[in-house]
Every structure is written in structure tokens, then in C-alpha cells.
Amino acid sequence: MPAHAPARPLEIAAAGPLRGTVRVPGDKSISHRSLMFGALAIGRTTVDGLLEGEDVLATAAAMRAMGARIDRGDDGRWTIDGVGVGGLMQPEQALDMGNSGTSTRLLMGLLASHRLTATFVGDASLSKRPMGRVIEPLSAMGAEFTASPGGRLPLTMRGLVPAVPIEYTLPVASAQVKSAILLAGLNTPGITTVIEPVPTRDHSERMLAGFGAELTVEPSPAGRVIRIRGEAELKPQSIVVPGDPSSAAFWLVAASIVPGSDVTVLNVGMNPTRSGIVTALRLMGADIEALAEREVGGEPVADLRVRHAPLSGIEVPPDLAPSMIDEYPVLFVAAAFASGRTIARGAEELRVKESDRIAAMAAALSAIGARVEEVEDGMIIDGTGGDPLAGGATITTHLDHRIAMSLSVAAQHCRAPVTLDDAAPVATSYPGFFSTLDALAGVALK
Ligand code: S3P
After folding, report:
1. CA 427 – ligand 1 centroid, Å
2. 187 CB within 6 A, ligand 1
3. Among 28, 29, 299, 405, which residue has the most ligand 1 atoms within 8 Å of its CB, making it the best to mutate?
4. CATH number of the 28-239 domain
5. Could you read off the pLDDT of 152-162 as tens digits, one per residue?
6. Do domains 10-26+242-445 and 28-239 have the same CATH topology?
7. What is the number of the ligand 1 atom nearest to the C-alpha of 173?
């Protein structure tokens, strides 16, 4: 198993209101897809605003290992010279996916319809995550897998050419599973169909259509029906990646809970399949204003101004779950400072993310003095009514970037500093997180 970076403990203290204007890094989902689809186009794709986090760099390294040329210019623009659908080469070594479930599952799909054998390895967190959800449909398309017990990494797969098109109804609401099948379908003769009973983030559909794939989306009583015609030819694109709403969410909550805060986050992706956190926070009474709403690279984008406001507990609508699945940890933080009770259920997928985010957040919030009850599919939280929490604890972050960042936000309204056992995983999705926190709040970092 690859070693990960040494643990980097970090103590974080509250430093008063957060004020200022910030930019968040590029969207993680769109960044992964830009590299993968660019590598499959014939010709040169350019990408501005790519997230240069460890997860996305793992995808870049894998695409290079299979023959794509990928470079970063001094101006921050990335170029990808693709090899064409079906043109990826046998990697010489195991593909190291680090902490990234998105890289792993989407690449498993992509390679399922290539004539090559690939071994996937990852860190301790990724090696616990279930891959059976992609192994099952990709096996039906003809790929063969040898996985570790429980359908986990390390695993080796052998793709099949020609693969067999399938029609598959998603048993879990997962954009990663949907995307894996669509990517396998790219090099499969005929039509591959995915039916999603519950809509999930639609970046793959939007971007594949933009790259020239024949892809249709239709509503039906069973859900969204997505069809892709295989043996596609992708045309290179010029991509501008919007800011990641999942990264913006930390500032939306931090400014909402710390009195006197006033923060503007520029250029935030507002795709409705991603913006559930804005809806949920507004239901709690958050003061979030969307300014300069516009479209960037086929995605809706806005600048979000958020000012401190008293929050109230809510019953989080479970149908928001897929559009804010990565934002529950920081929503739990907001709820811990709200007045009254928040009930967040119907989010059992949180148990199989980079950590078991229900257990990890229940332990972390309890440790800093919040009143929380862990339930199988979510959490029930009785907030402080706006008062600070005690803090003064060391948090186990379980190699999970979003646990580390959520507790850094909570620390902004705690009486005593909060220590993260390991801040290093933040670099997977938001390398500049702590310097932005420092700039907004003047936090004392040790
Ligand atoms: C992602 C989909 C989500 C999300 C992950 C990124 C994607 O996972 O949690 O951070 O880029 O498709 P699931 O689709 O497994 O819910």
C-alpha cells in the first residue's frame, strides 16, 4: 500500500469575524473529467482554472501513464493532447489513486472497454471504500476484476474489446457509478443506457455532449434515462472550470456562524445538482446573496455574498441529499450553532465517503461540546442558539479532507482552540484552504 504524507497536526483558534473577498479553487468533479475527456479527444484540449489538488493530480498522472500528454503552462493553463477513444495504452505500473474515489471509479469505467490490464491502489481511506458498485455493472459489460476482500482496493481489472452495451438502473444515487458506465460506453459499440431514479451531479453528461459525444437525457417514470452511443469520437475543447461549490460551502458556513462576518466568494458553480447546501442554509435563515449570475463554460456560476445571520434548526429535506452529499459535514457544523433541532436523515451514503462521515462528525462535534445524536442515515443536532462551543479538543480526521475543513470552520466559533490530528489531507481538494482562512479571519495557526 502506498505510504501517505506524514500526519500534520494543526491547532486552530477563533480570531473574530471573517471578512473579505475570496476565490475558491476549480471544481473537483469538473477538473477530473476535463483531464479524462481531454485525454480521449483527438487533438489539444486546454483547461483554465483546473483544481491542482492531489486527487486531480492523481488523475493526471494516470492519464499520462496511459499515453496522454498533459502539461501545465506558467500561466496556469493546462493542455492535454489526447489519444482518441480506445487509444489508451497499457500502464507499466499500478495506478496510484491516492485518496480519490472519483479517479478510481471513473477510470475503472474508462478502462473497462480498453484492451488492457490495470491495477488500482490507494491510501488507507480509499482502500476501505466499496468498489462493488462499479465492479457489478462493468462486469456485465465484460470487464474482469480481481479485487481485495469486500470488493476493495488494491484491485486489478482486465478490460474487454468490444465491450457489451448494457441498460443499467442505478441502485445507489451515485454520479461516480453513472459516470463509470457512461465512460465504459464511450468505447462500446451501440447504445449504453443508464437510468437514474434520483438525479445526481450531471457534469459527465454536460461535458461529454460538449466534447461531441452522442448523448441524450430524457425524463421517464423510472427516472432520468441517459443514453450514449459508443465508438464515439471526441473533439478537443477549451474548458474554463468554475469554482467548486463544495469548497465555497466552508466559507458560507463560517461567515454564517461567526458574528460580524461578511464574505464574498467569487465564481462559485451553481449547477442545481450541486447547490443543495445553499438551499439548506437559506432554509436555516442564512443570509446568502447570489450576485452576477452568469454562465461559464456551460455551467451556471455566481458570486455569493454571505453575512452572519442567526440560524434555526430544520428538517433537512432528504431529496436535497444528492445535491449536497459532500456538504453534510459542514452543514452539521452550521446546525451545531443554530437555535433548536436539526434533523438530517436519508444520507446513509455518508458512511462510505473518505471516512464514515456520520460517525466521524458525531465524534468530532461531541468532542468540542455539541449535542448530537448519531443515527444510521444521518444526525440529529441540538444547536447552541448562536453561542460558541467549548472547543479545546483534538479531532481525529480519518484521512478525510472535509472533516478537517469542517472542524476548522467550527473552531472559528469555539472558546478554546481545536486541534486537528492531521491537516495534510486538505490538500486533496483545497490546497490553499488554510491561507484563505488566515486571510479572512487572521487565525493563529501553529
Ligand atoms: C463525485 C460524486 C460524488 C461525490 C464525490 C465526487 C463525482 O460521489 O461525493 O466527491 O465527481 O462524480 P458519489 O457519486 O459516489 O455519491
Report:
1. 18
2. no
3. 29
4. 3.65.10.10
5. 999 999 999 99
6. yes
7. 16
Is 10-26+242-445 assigned to CATH 3.65.10.10? yes
pTM of the model: 0.97
Q: Is 148 helix (H, G, I), strand (E, B) or coil?
A: strand
Q: Which residues pair with 290 in a beta bridge?
A: 304
125-139 per-position pLDDT tens digit: 999 999 999 999 999
Instruction: Inform me whether the pLDDT recorded for 392 exceeds 80.
Output: yes
pLDDT in tens, 300-342: 999 999 999 999 999 999 999 999 999 999 999 999 999 999 9
Model confidence pLDDT, tens digit, residues 248-289: 999 999 999 999 999 999 999 999 999 999 999 999 999 999
DSSP codes of every residue in 358-410: HHHHHHHHHHTT-EEEEETTEEEEE--TTPPEEE--EEP-TT-HHHHHHHHHH
Q: Which residues are catalytic?
A: 326
Using pLDDT thresholds of 50, 70 and 90, give the confidence band for residue 6: confident
320 φ/ψ angles, rounded to the nearest 5 degrees = -80, -15
Q: Where are the domains of the chain?
A: 10-26+242-445, 28-239
Which of 133, 174, 330 for mutating ligand 1's site (highest number of atoms within 8 Å of CB)?
Answer: 174
Distance in Å, CA 176 to ligand 1 centroid = 5
Q: Is the CB of 237 under 6 A from ligand 1?
A: no
Q: How many whole angstroms from 429 Cα to the centroid of ligand 1?
A: 13
The H or E element spanning position 258 is none
**Alpha carbon nearest to ligand 1 atom 5, residue:** 102
Longest dimension (CA), the chain: 61
